[in-house]
Give the backbone structure.
Amino acid sequence: MAVSAATAASNFLRPLYRIEFPKCPHLSSESQFRLQLLRSHQTQRTTIRATSAAVVVESDLTTQHDLNTQVDLFACPICYEPLIRKGPVGFNLSAIYRSGFKCKRCQKAYTSKDGYLDLTVTSGLRDYTEVQPVRTELFRSPLVSFLYERGWRQNFRQSGFPGPEEEFKMAQEYFEPAKGGLIIDVSCGSGLFSRKFANSGTYSGVVALDFSENMLRQCNDFIKKDDTLSSTNIALVRADVSRLPFASGSVDAVHAGAALHCWPSPSNAVAEITRVLRSGGVFVGTTFLRYTSSTPWILRPFRERTSQGYGFLKEEEIKDLCTSCGLTNYSCKIQNSFIMFTAQKP
Ligand SMILES: C[S@@+](CC[C@H](N)C(=O)[O-])C[C@H]1O[C@@H](n2cnc3c(N)ncnc32)[C@H](O)[C@@H]1O
């Protein structure tokens, strides 16, 4: 499989196709283009036309029956141009794993490894290694990733988290306007919610996205164990929340469970989520609050000091972040230190 992905990637270097990107590649949810990508069971082997997005790929490639070259849903994390994909069609783990992706502008190829597609800027680098803040690095550890759904997450109940079933139901209510669209589960961890979104049948596609390689490996293992999931519209992507590999306005919903406090820069992350959401698209997040209105005044200075290192924010800070990035219709539900908040792209 790794060999076929590498071969597909190297084949990109042959200048056999012509690509025209629109001056302003704004891909709305109504776009025929995305529907074509997500459903893509048709085998158009030589010409793919995306009507509303005005993206045209014409290929002279003589392809095998199941191979295709197309402009993809995923975009380059460096320049945000949609990537060119070569490989089997379809938005599922196996088809994506066997495909190679390339940015025509940056001449950078992206391939899959260990079951996930690596769309970080550092993907494929040989000498440079980047170390993220502790709260990001912690979840890259194999042990933490293994323990996450085997006890670690359950501990969140003590802080007021209602538990995955209830959190999923609450999120689904907020995501009502995004039904039938593409949802990105940002910082999905081992895919606790990505799997629920995929199983719900509510969305045309689910992207389980995280920065941690080991969390994504766990996610892949959980999906493989669930027969109903292996053939559904789900993709596993490694990416940084501050550099999301999607074109502007191309996503219907973004979920970020228990994640905001782990991000190196919540403001960059919320700005980036706002960029990728389409008009009317919905963002739902949960996190731990630094303190709530019921926290006794005497404890607040202590909470200020101890919580800052973990990135826990106050409710008004979360609202400020969302509205300063241009999101509207902010609302939230709070239970002890747990907050679920939502906001919409105007
Ligand atoms: C506490 S887990 C949340 C997992 C899951 N969403 C849930 O609700 O249980 C936080 C996740 O944020 C991810 N994360 C941390 N920094 C990130 C970044 N810069 N970009 C994307 N994900 C990041 C971690 O790898 C980790 O999987």
